[in-house]
Amino acid sequence: LDAPVSSVALRKSGDYVITLGTRFAALKWKEQLVTTITHVDKDKPNNRFNDGKVDPAGRYFAGTMAEEIRPAVLERHQGSLYMLLSDFSVVKHFDQVDISNGLDWSLDHKTFFYIDSLSYSVDAFDYDLQTGKIGNRRSIYRLEKEESIPDGMCIDTEGKLWVACYDGGRVIRLDPETGKRLQTVKLPVDKTTSCCFGGKDYSEMYVTSASDGMDKEWLSRQPQAGGIFKITGLGVKGVPPYPFAG
């Protein structure tokens, strides 16, 4: 493809929807066919999409950021959070985002969780599932120094959040109600980037990592950097992904 693919979602009608550069696009896997649905951030040629996920009603949420000069170094406040509806119209929820990242919804679908990485915070919004409207933004967890930068995020069937910590070499489990960290799983690489549950019954966690910006010495110390890891035995399961309704 001609631009980076930053997120992939299942589609109700089959195949996938993806975020590609600054486009929402439809992907037909067998035909190797990609069709642009719509462009965002047309006035910002240096921007690209980052993380994205579909809400329980089938809307595709995804946010943008400026291209990085080097990992986590970029022009600030260039990103926005968007929502693609089933009729292919797009709603912009807000702008002034640094690095739009992890996102998910509470089990009762009344809260939307969101990470803008350089705020070092996991935020919550009130969520209206009928309309997709969000409001009443607040921080529910501020990362500690050794946890570094919050990146991708997912929720488990107990309603607890899992956050991959970029430069922190770990995934942390948070209670969004109390704002307490419940668990830390360390990995053999520093640049952990995202996490999701998978496997037959969603009891396995998959964690991605990055190797961008690492020199030879760093890579010799962390030869698995850039790999995908599977964590088993967590004792909790994840929530299956929702398909895009359009």
Task: Indicate the proportion of strand residues.
Answer: over 45%
Give the total of domains: 2
According to CATH, the homologous superfamily of the largest domain is: TolB, C-terminal domain
Structural class given helices, strands, pairing? mainly beta
List keywords for this structure.
246 residues; mainly beta; Neuraminidase; Thrombin, subunit H; 2 domains; four-stranded antiparallel β-sheet; 1 helix; 19 strands
Q: What can you see in these coordinates?
A:
A hairpin with a 3-residue loop joins strand 14 and strand 15. The mean pLDDT is 97. This protein has 2 domains: 142 residues, 6 Propeller (Neuraminidase); 96 residues, Thrombin, subunit H. The strands form 5 sheets. A 4-stranded antiparallel sheet has the order 1-2-3-4, with no helix packed on it. A 4-stranded antiparallel sheet has the order 5-6-7-8, with no helix packed on it. A 4-stranded antiparallel sheet has the order 9-10-11-12, with no helix packed on it. It is mainly beta. It contains 1 helix and 19 strands. One of its GO terms (cellular component) is cytoplasm. It is found in: Cytoplasm. It comes from Steatornis caripensis.
